[in-house]
Amino acid sequence: MSAVLEKPLRWKRLVQNLLLSLGVFILCAGAFEIALRFSGYGKLEIYEPDPALFWKLKPNQDCYTKIGHKPVHINSHGTRGREFSDQKPADTLRVLCLGDSRTFGWGLSQEETYCDILEALLQKQENQHKRVEVINAGVNAWSYPQMLVYYRETAARYRPDLVILGEANLWTQFSEQNSPQFVQKFMNRVRLKNILRRFAIYHFVVEVKLKDFYERNRTRFIPVDPSQDVLFKQQQRDPETLFRGSIEELCKLAQDRGGKPILLYLPSLDEAQATNSSTVLNAKRDLSQKLNLPLVDLTHEVRTNGKSLYLDADPVHYNTLGNQLIAQRLFQAITPLLVP
Asked: Which one is predicted more confidently, 208 or 152?
């Protein structure tokens, strides 16, 4: 009889211990979350899933950069920076900057990005004759096909006088050619990541502490060669043709809408020091000659200044000095285009 009664008691104690352990875990996790938030982690930028763009910045949010904890404001148009009107005001020089995290300003405040620095340089030149607006439409990890869709469906109506086409994410070529099933599956991933990014613990553990591990093993998760990419089997087997075509179509579309395209090449440290030109630089050189477009190439500056132009331990994203050089080179290329 005692053995029969003892068995339910053991199960009861086991359940109580499990509940107690769960309660302690939740309490510790909550305390850790609060401590990390006070230390500056959490409140990363949030993205909206989009059937045409896959992801875009959620409008009207204030957040911080993942690296450096610099303040970020996303306006009602879903671009980083100050508010602007859809309709371009009279006597306004409007510049649209397209690109990935290097244009967005990875680890930088808004004032440190080449978009804002360029705006200040152009405004000083224009003095009181024209108002200058530089729209920072950079979005982390966007590809050239995504930028093409964004310009065609959204930014063209802003009527930019100049369209600066910076760098893009090449290891995944999201495009209009992906199937609806693939798009839906990926949008679900965006929603899931948005939930995770709201937690400071995720920011600290995954985005910061495991960053080096991810960088060392990136090709195991997201192979550089799309034909070997198990996560994105529907990608094009010839990514160079895809991004070359997207760059050219975007530039021609901008010209048709009255804008002047400017091609911008921002090499990583390894790309600048390599003996052979990258496929992106070759594509932009060819297109510059074909369409008679300005090409701003930062290779010489990077070879001269080395890693002093990049964020610490990051040979891809430019620091404040690097962005100042980018803005100065763009300013030099733009000035002749503004001559009446």
From this structure: 152
Separation between Cα atoms, residue 107 and residue 318, nearest integer Å: 9
Residue keyed to tokens 């609060």? 34
pTM: 0.87
How many whole angstroms separate alpha carbon 302 and alpha carbon 281? Answer: 14
Best CA proximity match to 200, nearest among 36, 25, 16, 17: 36
Residue range 61-75: average pLDDT? 92
What pLDDT, on a 0 to 100 scale, did the predictor assign at position 298? 98
Whether the per-residue pLDDT at 124 is higher than 80: the answer is yes
Cα 306 to Cα 50, 51, 215, 322, 323, distances in angstroms: 38, 40, 21, 10, 14
Q: Quick one: tokens of 43?
A: 């409140």
The amino acid occupying position 301 is E
Residue type, 166: G
